[in-house]
């Protein structure tokens, strides 16, 4: 089921809204390449006060849980090395940090990255971090359910606004790996 774009008052091509996006996200959209045309990426203007999934669902309806995806920044540690990675899972699931993520990163320990690290290193706002425009050194782990969805509602890099992006485009992001079971129960 695609995201019902008519549920939102203001939906425009993301490429026409670069001034509303954080610089890393705007740069990624300006330099977009891949099999999904940039015109298929949409920007939805939303109130920053309802950026969190729970509040969005309360405002727009329960359908949103099945059609939105959360991007979580994790830190995998092995020895003295720390690897930051982004994990993208459907909003009604949680990231399997200590199983799938830890193994994928080859880490002895994995945990959610501290907020100041996630925000500072991504150049995005807390509550709006998105896999589009992240540092190229970061692995992007995409749950197969996200990759298989026709469209997912994701962060836009800031608390204001969301992006509607085909799952296929998310699976093709630079540094992306699609994983079964990344999002659990």
TrEMBL record:
YbaK/aminoacyl-tRNA synthetase-associated domain ranges (all copies): 48-170
Domain of life: Bacteria
A Pfam family this chain is assigned to: tRNA_edit
Xref: CDD domains: PA2301
Gene3D superfamilies: YbaK/aminoacyl-tRNA synthetase-associated domain
GO MF term list: aminoacyl-tRNA deacylase activity
SUPFAM superfamilies: YbaK/ProRS associated domain (SSF55826)
Name listed for the protein in its UniProt record: YbaK/aminoacyl-tRNA synthetase-associated domain-containing protein
């Amino acid at each position: 089921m695609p995201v019902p774009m008519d549920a939102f008052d203001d939906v425009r091509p993301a490429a026409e809204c670069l001034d509303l996006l954080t610089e890393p996200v705007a740069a990624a959209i300006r330099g977009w390449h891949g099999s999904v045309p940039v015109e298929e990426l949409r920007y939805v203007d939303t109130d920053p006060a309802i950026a969190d999934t729970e509040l969005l669902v309360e405002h727009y309806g329960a359908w949103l849980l099945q059609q939105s995806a959360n991007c979580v920044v994790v830190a995998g540690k092995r020895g003295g090395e720390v690897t930051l990675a982004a994990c993208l899972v459907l909003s009604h699931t949680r990231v399997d940090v200590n199983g799938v993520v830890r193994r994928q990163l080859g880490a002895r320990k994995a945990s959610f990255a501290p907020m100041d690290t996630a925000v500072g290193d991504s150049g995005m706002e807390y509550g709006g971090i998105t896999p589009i425009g992240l540092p190229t050194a970061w692995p992007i782990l995409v749950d197969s359910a996200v990759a298989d969805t026709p469209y997912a509602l994701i962060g836009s890099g800031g608390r204001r606004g969301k992006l509607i992006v085909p799952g296929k485009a998310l699976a093709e992001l630079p540094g992306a790996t699609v994983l079964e079971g990344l999002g659990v129960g």
